[in-house]
Amino acid sequence: LMGTLVASPFMGLDEKDEEGCFFCFPDLSCRTHGSYRLRFVFTRLALGELQPGATTSIITSTMSDVFTVFTAKDFPGMRASTPLTVALKRQGCAISVKKGSEKSNANSRKADSDDEYLARQGTMAKRRRR
């Protein structure tokens, strides 16, 4: 797991215009393929209490849904951002919004045979040469 493992709260409105407190981890990534769950722990960190070796109590914790990390070869492409992500970005939350890729749509269809695919690629190459 790489990236920033601690987040400060972002107060904003969700996609239904309901106020909420959101903790975003926009640069969190996993470099090893497999299926994972994340455990999120909510604690209160007071500036004066941050001493080497000090402990803090856990207020609450929760687990994420299972997610899959793909190898580069098996990656189906970026999915479009959720309406919640778009709503938070619009309000100034420092997260990126993705449109999604056509590759993920193409992988779900897989209707073409190899011959049709190669023929299309040859046609594309001829068009580029002109």
TrEMBL record:
<feature type="domain" description="Velvet">
    <location>
        <begin position="1"/>
        <end position="98"/>
    </location>
</feature>
<protein>
    <recommendedName>
        <fullName>Velvet domain-containing protein</fullName>
    </recommendedName>
</protein>
<dbReference type="Pfam" id="PF11754">
    <property type="entry name" value="Velvet"/>
</dbReference>
<dbReference type="GO" id="GO:0030435">
    <property type="term" value="P:sporulation resulting in formation of a cellular spore"/>
</dbReference>
<feature type="region of interest" description="Disordered">
    <location>
        <begin position="99"/>
        <end position="130"/>
    </location>
</feature>
<dbReference type="InterPro" id="IPR038491">
    <property type="entry name" value="Velvet_dom_sf"/>
</dbReference>
<keyword id="KW-0539">Nucleus</keyword>
<keyword id="KW-0804">Transcription</keyword>
<keyword id="KW-0805">Transcription regulation</keyword>
<dbReference type="InterPro" id="IPR021740">
    <property type="entry name" value="Velvet"/>
</dbReference>
<dbReference type="GO" id="GO:0005634">
    <property type="term" value="C:nucleus"/>
</dbReference>
<keyword id="KW-0749">Sporulation</keyword>
<dbReference type="InterPro" id="IPR037525">
    <property type="entry name" value="Velvet_dom"/>
</dbReference>
